[in-house]
Design brief:
It is a single chain. This protein is an alpha/beta fold. The chain folds into two domains: 6-204, 3-Layer(aba) Sandwich (Rossmann fold); 208-342, Orthogonal Bundle (N-(1-d-carboxylethyl)-l-norvaline Dehydrogenase, domain 2), CATH 1.10.1040.10. It is 42% helix and 16% strand. Helix 6 (206-230) runs antiparallel to helix 8, helix 6 (206-230) packs across helix 11 (296-303) and helix 6 (206-230) packs across helix 13. It is globular and about 50 Å long. This is 2-dehydropantoate 2-reductase. Belongs to the ketopantoate reductase family. It catalyses: (R)-pantoate + NADP(+) = 2-dehydropantoate + NADPH + H(+).
Length: 344
């Protein structure tokens, strides 16, 4: 077993569900929660260092305990125990736009022996981490991505609600490459996540996980910005005729970018898998399953928080620029969300 345990940063709905699920393994690993806010740190200590998860709207709340905790909000704060101890396995569940700022205080604890697993929406986080925190390929961590197909939300700090037990997750190592130094910790992290009973993760080869990420991203590119701009639930994407008319032009830009991505070249049937028709089918299916939900971007805009738009539609625009593919609709949505956010 990995004696260093698993660290989790970001206690929103997904981070809380993942941490709770890890502690529900019959022989659970040590789990250390990295907290940025003093108020949450003190609240966590006051309630006996426990997280609570409610499964189903009418379900009872179940607590999990046994967590360690580090306060990482202030480099000079006396609460920061083991500030120099290396982190071998880190799960990141903060918003994509907060990834670099969240990891900066613990940058010195991460290196070639570390594995970082990103349970986040959007794409482009790894490029940002490499640019700002880990520029040297010889010393940077091994990266993993996780996809969550669960519906969850935060009821109150340290208390999450999971819609049901029918969701699933998928994890994989980026590029299928693990350094020799990180290999034992990476393998342990994968095995622990697969064993965690609630999140129900499966391990996937990188190229399969990448395609799953892209399909999820295409849905988010439509649902997130438009629900945020209009202040509506996901189901409005299918109920409103004007929004339905936007689907194919927007998905057409996304499909053009996806089909030209270097990592997908040479794969069988990639043009069909990433076609407008395939992306539209995925979009409609996802909206039908989440019709009554409010998207994360809609909630962020309502609360005056920063959004992940630069890692959703913004990622499509940047990839298109590199390949000479114009994405004016995606670019417009990025600009509108940024403008909307600055009106708060």
């Amino acid at each position: 077993m990995n004696a260093h345990g698993i660290h989790v940063i970001g206690l929103g709905s997904i981070g809380t569900v993942v941490a709770h699920s890890l502690r529900c393994i019959p022989t659970p690993p040590p789990v250390t929660l990295l907290l940025h806010r003093e108020a949450i740190y003190q609240q966590f200590l006051a309630r006996g260092q426990r997280l609570h998860l409610q499964v189903g709207e009418g379900g009872s709340s179940v607590g999990s305990a046994g967590y360690d905790v580090d306060f990482v909000g202030d480099a000079n704060n006396s609460h920061r125990r083991s500030a120099a101890a290396p982190i071998r396995s880190l799960i990141v569940a903060v918003k994509a736009c907060a990834t670099v700022s969240a990891l900066r205080p613990i940058q010195h604890r991460l290196g070639r022996q570390s594995t970082i697993c990103l349970f986040q929406n959007g794409l482009g986080q790894i490029e940002a981490l490499n640019k700002h925190l880990f520029p040297d390929p010889l010393t940077r961590p091994t990266y993993m991505f996780g996809i969550m197909r669960h519906s969850a939300y935060i009821k109150s700090p340290l208390d999450a609600v999971l819609a049901g037990r029918h969701g699933s997750g998928a994890i994989g190592v980026v590029g299928d490459q693990v350094s020799a130094e990180a290999s034992p910790h990476c393998r342990d992290l994968i095995d622990r996540l697969v064993a965690a009973p609630i999140i129900r993760c499966t391990e996937m080869p990188w190229i399969e996980l990448r395609q799953a990420q892209l399909l999820k991203l295409s849905t988010n590119c439509m649902v997130n910005p438009l629900t945020a701009l209009l202040g509506v639930h996901n189901g409005a994407m299918l109920e409103n005729a004007e929004l339905r008319r936007m689907q194919r032009p927007l998905l057409g830009e996304i499909s053009s970018v996806f089909c030209q991505l270097p990592e997908l070249q040479g794969l069988p049937d990639v043009q069909a898998r990433m076609s407008v028709a395939a992306l539209e089918e995925q979009l409609i299916s996802n909206i039908q399953k989440t019709a009554g939900n409010s998207s994360s971007m809609c909630e962020d805009v309502r609360a005056g928080r920063a959004t992940e738009i630069e890692f959703i539609n913004g990622w499509v625009v940047r990839q298109g620029q590199e390949m000479g593919i114009a994405c004016p609709i995606n670019r417009c949505l990025v600009q509108l969300i940024l403008a909307r956010s600055r009106l708060q």
